[in-house]
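thought: fold this chain, then report.
action: predict
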Amino acid sequence: MNGSEVPGEPPLRPLSARSVVLSLLLGTHPPELPVRELVRLVEGFDVGGSTVRAALSRMAAAGDLRRTDTGYRLSERLLERQRRQDEALRPRTRAWDGDWEMLVITATGRGPAERAELRTRLTALRLAELREGVWLRPANLRRPLPAALDGVAERLVSRPGRPGAELSARLWPLDTWSRTARDLLARVGRARRPADRLTAFAAVVRHLLADPVLPAELLPSDWPGAALRDAYTEYQREQSGQVRAGGTRT
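observation:
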């Protein structure tokens, strides 16, 4: 058992060398570091240098990383993942006037893989499925819906008849999300070893990607979303300091 766990809690899965590299680069802007610096940083999370270098080579061959003149950079494919992570940490919202975004799926004849891909895309946009083919959320996010959705769905603006808080509780597992967020805050508060802290904060990022980012009017009064974001922002600041400190030594 590591220092961030207590009896009865499900253990967080330890991070592989690949996961440590990705966590560091996803939190770095721009997402590029020299090889020597990457190895130094990853070694600080109990990963051996030879293991790091082998992981970097495999990641470049797999298209996760792009080799540059001095080091490694996230591939274009993973830059989209970084963008989504950044938005999860600092969501762009606006005052909510009671309107809801609604997408009604109109395309037919799609296979299982296409349907699954569309569900993933809509979920990433923080929409939730009311019933088959009907997706919606409060219109409080400052983000356009991708133009590619025009070919598969009809976009509408609506004001549902039922209370917004009641509808939100039906669409998203708010109690479960809140309980997990509090568990993660407790874990990161207990974690002391760098590897344990990185593992806990990687779980924090994954959890924030599932935050529906609802208007305050529709959330429980003790919603822990802001506290979870603040905790990660402080950790990211610490990690950026480590990167800058390494740069001054090279």
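thought: worth noting. Residues 225-249 form the longest helix (25 residues).
final: tokens above.
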